[in-house]
Each structure stands twice: as C-alpha cells, then as structure tokens.
Amino acid sequence: MKFDNILSEINGFGKFQIKLVLIQMLSRLSMPCHFLLNNFMAAVPSHHCDISSLDDGGIFRNLTMDQKLAVSIPAERDGSLSSCQMFLQPHYEHLSGSNSTDNTVIAECQTGWVYDNSTFKSTVVTEWDLVCSRKGMSRATATVFFIGVMFGAPLFGFLSDRFGRRPLLLVSYLSSMVFGVISAFSTSYIMFAIMRFFTGMSLAGLSIISIVLNVEWFGIEHRTFSGIIIGLDWTLGNWLLVLIAYLVNEWRMLILAATSPLILSIIAWRWLPESARWLLANGKADAAHHYIMVCAKMNNRAKYMDNITPRALLESAEAETEQKKYTFVDLFRTTNIRKLSICLGIVWYGVAFTYYGICLNITGFGLNPYLTQCIFASIELPMKIGVYFFLEKIGRRPGEVWTLLLTGVCLFTNIFVPLEKWLIRTIVGVLGKAMSEASFTIMYLYTTELFPTVVRQNGLGYTSFLARLGVSISPLVMLLEDAWHLLPAVTYCVVAVGSGLVASLLPETLNARLPEFISDIEKPREKSQRKQEIQLHTYS
Fold first, then answer.
1. Same domain, yes or no, for 302 and 437?
2. Could you tell me the CATH number of the domain that includes residue 255?
3. Residue 391 shares a structural domain with residue 353
4. Which of 45, 142, 316, 513 maximizes the CB count within 10 A of its CB?
5. CA-CA distance, 514 to 23, in Å (whole number)?
6. Alpha-carbon torsion 130, 131, 136, 140, what sign?
7. CB-based contacts of 424: which residues, under 8 Å, 6+ apart?
8. Do 233 and 89 lie in a common domain?
C-alpha cells in the first residue's frame, strides 16, 4: 500500500495541509529578510574623504561646503567628486574655474570618510568604513552568510533524514534567532562575519526542511500547488523586507526586525506534524499512523482509516525498504541517481548564482533601492501564478530549461543598454528577475520530486550546498568590473544559459509518484511493468 494512495483517500489537500502551510509561513517570512538583507544592511551610501584635517583656520573655514569639497577633492573623468582620494592641501584656484593639476599632490583619504545619511542612517559599511580599498569586505558580508548556508544545507539535510524533519526545524528556528540577535550586537567586523556565517548555517535548515515537509504531505494532484504556494512565502517576505528596511534604516535594528518572525514560528512549532513518509521509511509505523489519523480527522476523512492499522503500514513499508541508513554517498552509488545528482547540482549552482547576481545588485538600475526591491518583489506574484499553470499543463523540465535560457537572454540584452537609459534597463532587468525567480521556484519542487524519500533531505542538502556555493561566489563577481565593466554581466549570462542546457537532461516528473527508494529510480522499467501488472489484475 503506497503512501500516496492513502494520502489520496484522506485528501492530499485539505485543512491539515493548509494548517501546515500557514504554520511554516511564519518562519519562511524571515528567509528573504535575511537572504537579501545585504541590499540594505550593507548598502554603500555616497561618500567622500573627511576633509576636516585641511581646515587651516583661515580662508577654508569661511567657504561653503560645496566650495570646500571643490578645493579638497579631485574630480573623476565624469566630473563627479572622487570617493577615495583627496588633496593634501586646499587648491583654492579651483574656485576660479582652474583645474590645473600642476604641483597637485593627491592621496588616499587620510582621516576617514563622510557618508550621505539621507537614505540610510547607518550600515555595516559606514560602521567599519568598508569602502575604497576595503570595498571587497562589504561584498564579503554576503559571501560569508551564504558560505554558512552552504555548509548548513548538507548538515541539516543529513540530520533531518536521520532524526526527522520536525525536531531539526526547531533547532533551525532557535539557532537562527540566537545567532541573528548576537550578530546585531557585534562589536567588530570579524565578530559580525562569524555570526552571519552561523546565521546562514542555521537558516539553511529552515530553507530545505520546510519545503520537503510540505511536499511530503501533499497528494500527487496537488504537489505542484504546494511547491508554488510555499514559494509565495518568499514573495511576502520580500515585501516585508522592503517595509522593514524603509521604516528601520539603522542596520542593527534592521537585523533584529528581520529575525522577529522566528519568535512566532517557535511558538507555533508545537502544532507542526512530522513527515509520515519519513516515519514509515524509518519503520516508525505507530507515529506515522498517529499523524495520518490526525490528517484524516482534520480533513473529514477518518472513515477511510478504519482498515489501516500501524501493522499494515509497517508491512507495506517493509515490503520495499532496506534496513539501512542512507548517506550522501548513496546519491552517487548507482548509475541513474548519480547522473541525477550531478545534473541537479550543476543546475542548482547556475540557478542560485544567477538569481542572487540579479537580486544583490539592485543599485545597478539607477532607481531608489527601496523602489527597485519592491518592483522585484511585486513581479514575483504574477510570475508564480503563471508558473503554476505552466507546470500543470506543460511540465517541470521545459519550464526549468526555458526560464533559465530567458534569464540569460535578458542579461545579454542589458549588456548593450547604456546606463543612461535606466527605464529600459529596469524593464529588462525585472523580466530577467522574473525568469530567474521562476527557475528557482520550479527547481525546489522539481528536486523534491526527483529524489527518493530515503535520501530526499540528503539530496536537497547536497543541491543546496552547491546552490549556496554559487551564491557565495555571486556577489564577488561584481568585483570583476574593475577588470572589464561588462565581465560580471557576461559571466551571469553564460552560467544561466549553460545551466539551462544541463536542465534539459533531467527526467520529467509531472503527475508522477514520489519515488520512495533508490530502486524506484534505478529500475523504472521494472516499476512500470509492475504497475501495469497490478492494473491488469485489478481490471480482470
């Protein structure tokens, strides 16, 4: 007796599943708030050298601020004032329009920087002067966070496959909140970076376990909907981030506000069910029967459980399961799952690398950062509705392939649009963001459907590890613009197109049963024949 058959009988999309989604929404709202927090927490405001050291008590003191800057800061080729250099002595001749560079001594900022606080009261950049020669450290704050996510994904994947989805979610909630709060009170950049690493590691568990728990409780006919609806949490969290960042423009309070949804999720955890699929796969029939009964009663289908006992569930599970513990090695032990794991790893790397390359560069379109982030969040809702109908009618594989290829096309197009045409750049950029978001949404659902139950969390941990590897590198790619200003865009474009082509090698999963064991993947032909025999026997 397959679990999917039981789930169909007790309603694979009822009050029980809606309750599950709503409980998990509380915690998942905090994910985009942290994953995209760098757009505001590490924003780089306009700045110039602190010129107070040039005040000689004479003419300089009587100048207006604009005049002081004119005689103290050299101009760039485009006429703007330098952000990283200053004159060692005031050049009063600049007041008369002379721009002579004879006998001019230019040096790096001597006594720090002055920042424009009109948009952001404080950021980690202004806190520790992460500009000019230290600007790489600003980008590194995102990289360190995602390296934490990268290591946390396989760790939580392994532990949740070993000890269950529910207890590891609580561990993720508690540790994310603790490290998030500590990071807000960091007294040095090193301490801040370490705490962000552990915050990312903790949030990785929330990211991968929550979506698996949802998918494992939804029936086949509603699995697409489950994958899309949990993706809407990201959209809502995106809007929440814009609102919080607009209202809270001090980076320490911003981190605390972004972490606050986890308080409610910890309270609501007591009503969160364990995955009955995982319980059955691990021989815990009594507990599985308990949660299945809870689901049946809540969905008004209790009468269908009259003939289903814990013993029957256990015998059904033992008929196909092997008494062994599964590890990451099992993702590469046999031919088909090895091919599947390699392809999924490559695609996940490309999806995440491209998505965060777009999302963490909201200042590249010439708009207010709050407006850009709001536009990026708003485009997700209609896109995800469209993705739902596409996945239901067409399938996962063509959806993933085409969204990645179209992302590459948008990135390629913007290479040739000059910065002055900010409206066109924004429109193309938003379309690219929409396609990239679609590829991310599809991939989460697609991956949970491809990996068998016994290694599903291990599989998601492995793919999430490679995805976060891509995310960790993605912010640093922007530093390549110092070598060639188009190199970052070209890199993102090539990775998007390449990963889209690899996605074409994956099998389709539309309306297919979730594989329970590795043998379901390795012997699909035998499985198909067995189904046909059962159907023939039923009709005869």
1. no
2. 1.20.1250.20
3. yes
4. 142
5. 24
6. positive
7. 417
8. no
How far is CA 258 from its chain centroid?
15
For 76-89, the three-class secondary structure string (H helix, E strand, C coil) is CCCCCECCCEEECC
How many structural domains is the chain composed of?
A: 3
Which segments of the chain have a pLDDT < 50?
525-540
Query: Quick one: which of 202, 188, 41 has its CA closest to 128?
Result: 188
What does the alpha-carbon distance between residue 64 and residue 68 come to, in Å, rounded to a whole number?
6
Q: What would the pLDDT profile of 155-196 be if each residue is shown by its tens digit?
A: 888 888 888 899 999 999 999 999 999 999 999 999 999 999
Query: Do 319 and 448 fall into the same domain?
Result: no
Token pair recorded at residue 467: 């995805």
146 domain residue, yes or no: yes
Residue 396 structural domain: 326-539
Q: In the 3-class helix/strand/coil scheme, how is 438-502 assigned residue by residue?
A: HHHHHHHHHHHHHCCHHHHHHHHHHHHHHHHHHHHHHHHHHHHHHCCCCHHHHHHHHHHHHHHHH
How would you class 324 by CB atoms within 10 Å of its CB: exposed for 0-12, middle for 13-18, buried for 19 or more? exposed
Same domain, 181 and 106: no
The whole-angstrom separation of Cα 244 and Cα 226 is: 27
Per-residue pLDDT of 15-40, as tens digits, reads 898 899 889 888 888 888 998 898 89
- Count of positions (residues) in the chain: 540
Q: Tell me which residue of 448, 328, 434, 326 sits closest to 383, measured CA to CA.
A: 434
Q: What is the pLDDT of residue 240?
A: 92
How far is CA 182 from each of CA 37, 130, 175, 191, 269, rounded to the nearest angstrom?
16, 21, 11, 9, 23
- Alpha-carbon distance 284 to 509, whole Å? 28
Is 124 within the bounds of a domain? Answer: no
Partners of 230 in beta bridges: none
> 125 lies in a domain?
no
The burial of 325, by beta-carbon neighbours within 10 Å (0-12 exposed, 13-18 middle, 19 or more buried), is given as: exposed
Tokens 């809606």 identify what position?
18
Ordered DSSP codes for 65-122: HHHHHHHHS-B-TTSPBPSSEEESS--GGGGGT----TT--EEE-SS-EEE--SS-SB
